[in-house]
Specification:
3 domains; 5-stranded parallel beta sheet; two-stranded parallel sheet; about 45% helix; globular
Length: about 600
């Protein structure tokens, strides 16, 4: 790497991240490992929670470590190999932008990745439209547009579902495989945060290949620039396996940098170089610094959200434009991560689906959870709001401030627990009249951008990321305070797809020390709500288990109690009913007299659960 590529930064991280040590939780893929930074986040106070999240997010920008044989040589965001791949992919996008009549950039993903695919595709299409150019971005999300608003995790497990979409290809490995079979049409790009060597090497249910086989095939094609893999290590998540957080942020950072670089090359004749890519990535480091400079105010909102959730209240995000989308995305992800009810945290956006511009249009007929406009909030939610609820307005000073003030006044008639995240520019401030509507305001100030459309667009993207970090802290911190996390593990996750099923088994093995078969037996008892499992249940495909589990609550906590107390299903459920806090119930089991907790598992015990 030439000297001009070297990047220096001052973001605070651990001197040597323990997760880089050879042998650290070696049986798990990097994104499933626990982060040593947050090992005690379940007992942290709100300010400590925010500080720990800040440190975890800073790992996105950490450089490679080359300090001896004990350090795993992960490539990082600023590694030469990653930068070179970013440059190559940006040049491919540039070619598409220059030949818009015969080309398309298709973003596809499941869960958080699919929601970000929607956000980026619609955002960059709006940019092209404003520049009076053909809109060349499209998105695809497993589960369709319903998955933008609620968890549709089971769609990830269908290897043929996407084939009905892309010409069509399955999600996600199947899509890549389809593209590689049609390289005269497609240039496949895989974005993830695990080394290819840790990809799962078991055949995907209902298909004929493993993800590892697909990824290695892509790796071979990358040598001739016919396929590309972008997989920098950004470290384990603050909440183990919760890829909505750091993985989602890194996805947004990488793709936006890539697309903006391609746009400038195509329309402003700015050459795509390592320096240009690096400068794009550096701007997001500054967003990290600006956002977390508000730690005390963010922590106050975390505390407030925790109180609301503890009192069986709700958290409502009321956003404008794409900041409203960020609220909807954050809310939708709490259901699988924390086993939350769909009404616990909800997001609303001005003008509803007209502002969203999703492919399927207005889908309010699908159910109350798909009613997302401010009008829906006023009609369906506001009449029932109390001081046990937390309401958060999210806007910029470019939004309709009179509309914001009017809605704020309506809301304060029902509750004084109204807060705001407001993005301002230097020299511009929220009026005192509007400010007094809120119990607190987090004001993020951005530099003034003069007469550069793309500069304004970049600032919009940065505001979105800043908002994402704040909302992730509020929702994650609130659920931590509610007792949904033990150590830094999501103990009450929804077991709604194969990935989450395997994660649940790994958690049970880690904390109970029981074997894989024993943990699976207890997990299935909790899923099927029966003490006596039939052979048909035991031998069923995982997708059947996850289909049954999708509507069940407290599946993993119930299995923990069964295993640690060596009790019946009925007794386990009774013990959980006796306490309102999941964490306390699990702690009571794991520290009970005579119980020896086992905190480490082997690769063999996990049966390949990488």
């Amino acid at each position: 790497m030439s000297g001009s590529w070297k990047h220096c930064h001052s973001i605070e991280t651990a001197d040597i991240e323990m997760w880089q040590l050879a042998g650290y939780e070696a049986s798990l893929s990097l994104t499933e490992k626990s982060n040593p930074i947050t090992r005690e986040i379940d007992t942290a106070d709100p300010l400590q929670i925010v500080h720990l999240l800040q440190m975890c997010d800073a790992e996105i920008f950490q450089e490679e470590r080359r300090e001896g044989k004990t350090i795993v040589d992960y490539q990082r965001l600023y590694s030469e190999s990653v930068l070179q791949t970013l440059i190559s992919v940006a040049k491919k996008v540039e070619e598409i932008l220059k030949d818009p009549e015969h080309s398309l950039v298709l973003l596809s993903g499941c869960g958080t990745s699919g929601r970000l695919a929607f956000l980026l595709a619609t955002s960059f299409n709006r940019l092209l439209k404003a520049l009076q150019r053909k809109q060349n971005y499209a998105y695809m999300i497993a589960g369709g547009d319903k998955a933008l608003l609620t968890s549709q995790e089971d769609a990830e497990d269908n290897p043929h579902l996407g084939a009905e979409e892309l010409g069509k290809a399955p999600f996600i490995a199947g899509q890549l495989d389809f593209c590689m079979d049609n390289l005269d049409v497609f240039t496949p790009v895989l974005l993830g945060f695990n080394p290819v060597t840790t990809a799962r090497n078991e055949v995907i249910e209902g298909w004929h290949l493993s993800f590892c086989q697909v990824a290695k095939r892509m790796q071979d094609l990358q040598k001739t620039h016919r396929a590309f893999i972008l997989n920098p290590a950004v470290g384990p998540e603050a909440i183990s396996g919760s890829s909505r957080m750091k993985g989602g942020s890194a996805t947004k950072i990488i793709l936006e940098t890539l697309f903006l670089t391609a746009h400038r090359a195509a329309f402003s004749h700015k050459e795509i170089t390592a320096e240009v890519v690096l400068e794009g990535l550096r701007t997001y480091e500054r967003v990290h610094k600006s956002t977390y400079s508000q730690n005390n105010k963010i922590a106050a909102l975390v505390k407030q959200a925790g109180r609301s959730l503890q009192k069986r209240g709700h958290v409502y995000y009321i956003g404008w434009k794409t900041l409203g989308v960020m609220g909807i995305i954050d809310a939708s992800e709490c259901i699988p991560t924390f086993g939350a009810d769909a009404s616990d945290i909800c997001g609303f956006i001005n003008n509803g689906y007209r502002e969203m511009e999703n492919k399927e249009g207005d889908i309010t007929s699908q159910g109350p959870q798909f009613c997302i406009s401010h009008e829906d909030f006023v009609k369906n939610i506001l009449p029932h709001v109390t001081d046990n609820d937390t309401i958060l307005f999210i806007f910029t000073l470019d939004d309709d401030l009179s509309e914001i003030e009017e809605l704020a006044n309506q809301t304060t008639e029902k509750s004084s627990n109204l807060h705001a995240v407001a993005h301002t520019t230097a020299g511009h401030f929220i009026s005192e009249n509007l400010k007094k509507s809120f119990a607190s305001v987090i004001s993020i100030t951005w530099p003034v951008v003069f007469s550069e459309f793309e500069g304004c667009f970049l600032q919009k993207l940065q505001r979105e990321l800043s908002t994402k970090w704040i909302l992730n802290a509020i929702s994650s911190g609130g659920h931590i305070l509610k007792g949904k996390i033990y150590n830094n593990y999501m103990m009450d996750l929804k077991v709604s797809n194969t990935k989450l099923y395997r994660r649940a088994l790994a958690i049970l093995q880690k904390f109970t020390g029981h074997s894989h078969p024993e943990c699976q037996e207890a997990l299935l008892q909790a899923i099927y709500d029966t003490q006596d499992l039939s052979d048909d249940i035991r031998n069923a495909e995982v997708t059947k288990h996850t289909y049954m589990a999708n509507t069940k609550n407290r599946v993993v906590p119930t299995a923990v109690v069964i295993l640690t107390r060596k009790c019946s299903l009925a007794e386990a459920k009774s013990r959980l009913d006796a306490t309102s806090v999941i964490r306390d119930a699990i702690e009571a089991c794991l520290v009970a007299p005579g119980w020896k907790r086992v905190g480490q598992i082997t690769a063999g015990e996990l049966e390949g659960n990488e």
